[in-house]
Amino acid sequence: MDDKTRSLLSRANTALIRYPRFKSLHNDIRECQEMSQLANEPQCMSLEGVTGAGKSTLMQDYAALFPRIEQSDGARIPIFYVETPSPVTVKGMAATLLTHLGDPAAHYGTLWAMNFRLIRLMIDCQVELVILDDFHHLIDQETDRILEQVSDWLKGLIKETRIPFLVVGIEGKVERILEANAQLSRLFAVRQTLEPFRCDPSDETSIQEFGRFVQHAEQAIGVPLPVTISRLELLHRLHYATEGVVGNLMNLLR
User: Fold this and answer.
1) How far is it, in rounded angstroms, from Cα 94 to Cα 157?
2) In the 8-state DSSP scheme, what is residue 139?
3) Which of 18, 87, 101, 124 is deepest in the core (most CB within 10 A)?
4) Which pairs count as long-range contacts for 76-79, CB under 8 Å and 24+ apart, including other chains?
5) Which tens digits make up the pLDDT trace of 185-196?
6) Which residue intervals of 105-147 are DSSP H helices?
């Protein structure tokens, strides 16, 4: 592999395109974060999307805007990003959060003691927003049942800390988990979906949006697409092959 090919592959793997919907969701998350501070009440949000829609990429990009800061009196973690473990239990979830907050004894103690340390650490670290990715893991894969104890525990944690949560997961599953717990559901007033791109012949705007994203992707990767067919035909073929899912499209272009 020559140097030029290595360079192109590197660009392809690190390319991040902040398209309009991506930026709009950034703004929604920021609003929940700021409103929670102003109202002193957690303004929680959920985000769903099909696999490959770019949910985790969006979350990690947002979290990177608020990096962890090590101070003389401890760490400050404005955005606390963590992936939901699988399989998940209440104690396992508490231990995962404690580990990411830097608790050296994250897996030890009674659940009561772990909860006490977790609440104290989240407040001491001045957490402004918790991003809980892979939230769909609260549905047991073998039985397809919602893990009610975990969702109940999460509701209590949000109320105790007054810190907003952004839960992220597979389309349909996040909503199902929230709706199964009325008290938890009420905390999540903002519900968003990261939809795939459309390329509808009867909707010129959808074609233009998809076309702009493809153009930005070409520039980011550094490899222009062929011009042996019309651009419109090319866009329709790309959409047919990828269903407008960002992850599928980027994989195809790479």
Assistant:
1) 10
2) B
3) 101
4) 76/125, 76/126, 77/101, 77/125, 77/126, 77/127, 78/126, 78/127, 78/128, 78/129, 79/33, 79/127, 79/128, 79/129, 79/131
5) 999 999 999 999
6) 111-124
